[in-house]
Amino acid sequence: MTRSYILSTCGTSLLTNGRSDEERKLVTKYSNEKERQTIPALDAAKLDTIITEVETRLVAADQPTVAKLSAELNALVRFYEGQSFAPRDEHSLLCTDTWLGEAAARLVETWLRQQGCTVTVLRQRDLQTAHLNAFQLALSDLVRWIEQTIPGYRQAGYRVIFNLTGGFKSVQGFLQSLAPFYADEVVYIFESQKGLLRIPRLPVRMAATETVRATLTTFRRLSKNLSVVEVGGIPETLLLHDEGKVTLSPWGELIWSQVKGGIYAEQLWPSPSILLVFGPRFERSVNDLAPDRMRIVNERIDDLARYLESGRTINPASLDFKELRGNPMPPSTHECDAWADQGAQRLFGHFEGDTFVLDRLERHT
Q1: Residue 224 to residues 39, 227, 309, 324, Cα–Cα distance (Å)
Q2: How far is CA 175 from each of CA 24, 160, 187, 200, 318, rounded to the nearest angstrom?
Q3: pLDDT, tens digit (0-9, with 9 covering 90-100), for 294-337
Q4: Tens of pLDDT along 176-215?
Q5: Ramachandran assignment for 18, one of left (phi > 0), alpha (psi -120 to 50 degrees), beta (any other)
Q6: Which helix (H) or strand (E) holds 4?
Q7: 100: closest CA among 138, 81, 128, 69?
Q8: Which domains does the chain have, with CATH numbers?
């Protein structure tokens, strides 16, 4: 039987449904506070009481009752058509980067775990509705998380569902725009709340490959948070400008994640950094690589460029840049990982001043 991976957006309606006007206003007033400690003690205590009372009701609630308490759970109850929740499925609850947002998601998590579900809560950093720039940066991070997470579920045979019934409209709208690329189905509670609106995956083809190819060095640098001087040729909708710094917008992140792999698999592309150059033997050492290995080499070159431009401080495990012991492979003095599977290989090179010269790709004997 097909397993499902269900990503549900979560808001704070669970804390306001069935509450008094005064209590609803209190939740709304502090809905963007990141931490409980920033809320006046008296109001924080009142909010604690609300959370505790909701938890007590929720823990004892059956499916019909829980559907009235929580928009997120209402959609899931209808998704499972009133039957027992499938323990083989996995759930992620996306909440805002706020105290009350996480508190509400944790309550949903508690009830789902009672049903035997596997659940994780994703409190997305800076995802809040108070500041637009922070919100847009949070969406860029969310794209990266989705790209790193969801394809793996699909490869493992899961059916990917976006449950966009709960949460803030701005987050729902953004995930709806991502759904054609990542979700097999999107579900909402229909306005009458008597039925579940199910939208199947629509065929979509990104038409931005040539834009990325024409400005590849700029995209590579932006994807690694490296400074750029010129962004000509890249549509403004793909960029964010904040206090003189340019980054990829959520849409830029989406396009990059969709087309990078194919472009990187085509060939060895020029270095994205003036601190990293290719020696005379390097290109020959990678010319006959299979497309999937060529993609990895280009990705590792990006990591190496970031390492060099960070003052040699950002050295991820995937790179593992280090000095060679002794003098085993002159003129190379340093090495970093290329890949660990299929006969692990490394990139070897040496410094000429502040510039690192890549000498060759080969096994470390």
Answers
A1: 36, 9, 10, 26
A2: 26, 13, 12, 14, 29
A3: 999 999 999 999 999 999 999 999 999 999 998 888 999 999 99
A4: 888 888 899 999 886 555 667 776 665 655 567 888 988 9
A5: left
A6: strand 3-9
A7: 128
A8: 3-200 (3.40.50.10770), 205-264 (no CATH), 270-365 (3.30.2310.20)
